[in-house]
Amino acid sequence: GLELSKLAQLISVAKGELPADLILANASVLNVFTGEIEPGNVAICGDRIAGVGDYHQAKQILDLRGKYLAPGLINGHTHLESSMLDIGQYARAVVPRGTLAVVTDLHEIANVCGLEGMRYVLRSARRLPLELFLMAPSCVPATHLETSGASLEPQALRQILRWRGCIGLGEVMNFPGVLSANESILNKISLARGKVVDGHAPGVTGKNLSAYIAAGIYSDHESVSLDEARDKLRQGMYVMIREGSSEKNLDALLPLVTDKTYKRCLLVVDDRSCVDLLRDGDIDAVVRKAIRSGLDPVRAIQMATINAAEYFRLARLGAIAPGYTANLIV
Predict the structure, then answer these.
(1) Which residues form a coiled coil (predicted)?
(2) What are the residue ranges in the chain where pLDDT is below 50?
(3) CA distances to 6, 7, 9, 11, 188 from 44, in Å
(4) Which of 172, 275, 299, 307 has the fewest CB within 10 Å, making it most exposed?
(5) For 4-70+320-329, which CATH class?
């Protein structure tokens, strides 16, 4: 939270008693809560939004001349390592395109060099204009048939889950282990109690899906058919609609998104190569493709901002509103 003095200043700016540090004037503000686009001035104090509306006093005023102002995009499921880029170059590729936050479990670098590799990425990310939220990798190695450079047992996971910026448990790929109530995998899930637990359940439906969800796993990005995604949605999962370099499920799953269901749907990339990041972009490319395929533009942005923020419990991200972080794209 903010220090009391900074919070008091934010309140005064919001009330119009003190000038803002920055006003983004004459913006067409995308309101992710109501789905509306509103004209207004956005007052910013420090790194927080003080208010949206009739603000005119500021140390600096930037006239947007009616341009759209949206929250920074949140990529709710991605493996940075698939880009084959170091974290600094990855940020250089995605931040200018509007991806200002990513959720990742770093399981690929953990497979190679364990905690040391994960710490390197997290340390490097702190110096970048990119919010990185870590999900503790639940399956390192991915299978017992694999010879990996590291293995993360429950004791290591307990440590990672206490790290600053770790918000939950990464995709539980060992769905056979969950269904057979394997003690090791259930122990890992129990360590994350109270945090978000991501799923990975390709082709799992019906009662097996019920059993998988009952273990405390409430999202999935592996659906390739509409029926599979609908079953997961009906049974209480958040459905991550994936459009990456190899797996492209957007066209098949977009009919799932309606006025009644869209709050439980997220746009993600899972894996994107550096070639695709350069040529098409990151989550911004998925938003654009969804719009081209007929999805309402505001809804597409909601599915890449506030929906991810609410599922992952990312306080003060994903919206343009008082008290939210001024992570914005024009």
Answers:
(1) none
(2) none
(3) 12, 13, 11, 11, 41
(4) 275
(5) mainly beta
**Domain residue extents for the chain:** 4-70+320-329, 73-304
Q: Taking the domain 73-304, which CATH number applies?
A: 3.20.20.140
What is the rounded CA–CA span in Å between residue 3 and residue 149?
43
pTM: 0.94
The answer to whether residues 314 and 308 touch, using CB atoms and an 8 Å cutoff, is yes
Q: How far apart are CA 13 and CA 40, in angstroms?
A: 16
- Which tokens hold the place of 204? 């799992």
